[in-house]
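Entry:
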Amino acid sequence: MKVCLISPDEPRNRQKFISIPLSAGNHEVTVIKTKPSASFLFHLAYSLLRNKPDVVVFIGAGLKVLLALGLVKSSRVAFTARLGGDRLKDLDSVAKSAWDDGRYLLWLKFRFEKGIARIFLRQMHTVILVNAALSSQVSKQLSTPNRVFIIPQFCEGPAVIKHYEIQTPVEILTVSNFIFSEKAGGIIWLIEQLNQFVRGSGLAIRFRVAGGGLHLKDIKKYVDSLTISPLLSVELAGFVTDLNSYYRKADLFLYHSFHDATPNVILESKRYALPLLINECDQFSSIVEHGVSGLLYPDKTRFAEFLKELLTNIGIRKKLGQGALRDHESRFSMHASQRKIEAAFLDIMTR
């Protein structure tokens, strides 16, 4: 199979979630980066003429992929797009933050990008999404009829052997990015609950928060204003290039967000065999099986109950951590992703 990926030239390198599994399966993969100039369009035109792919995959929904779409449609090659979330919703969120902060030119930029994304999505008959919870909303943004394929991103790296033990203080980790105010709000919620928990339980916790972004300052402001129990230590590490030592040192992983689809950090935690304590919502219920690969809390009462069990019961920690590791290997490894991508592309090619 010949596959051409059209991707932004970005640090996140999202195209790897398609290119690496396909390359491992001995498929021919060409990656064309949408560089600042229009030169990528000449590269794409040459590729379409001289080495015609079976499928073209657009990564994201920006202006440059919209420009490329016209070329691809004229070549009559099958095409699809991979989306890591609800792009229109994300742009609404960052636009609101820009408006609230009085950054009106940035707000205008995000509104323009939303218009471009809407035009692009209206021309898509198929898309690849990372989470089934996105399907109902995103499918309304596409051309009709349409087909949605659910293929979560794979998690890079080998499985890590975890040794479970009781230590004081308990090391708890969360990792996020704070581009979106909603995600910073989730960390603030966790800190508030942990502060109440240690006061009531007498158990000591070190809570490490890794991640950067505009709204990290909101978390710092909250922590500075809070009377924190001596039993709770909060470390705001900011952006961390290599998280390996953070995952290895952690006893368990916490997360609280209603904004995400399939966060890489949850999948990464599975690879490190960490027990997971995650808020209950549709998108997380599809990647964490309650009682098997983690615990899903619906409210603050159950959060405290589950947290106490995880902190005091080494058996449940080990059970959930090993369940998370098995889930990584069966659903979120590179080989699992490869099988799903191949099946989806064969379907797209026959449409």
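The mean pLDDT is 94.
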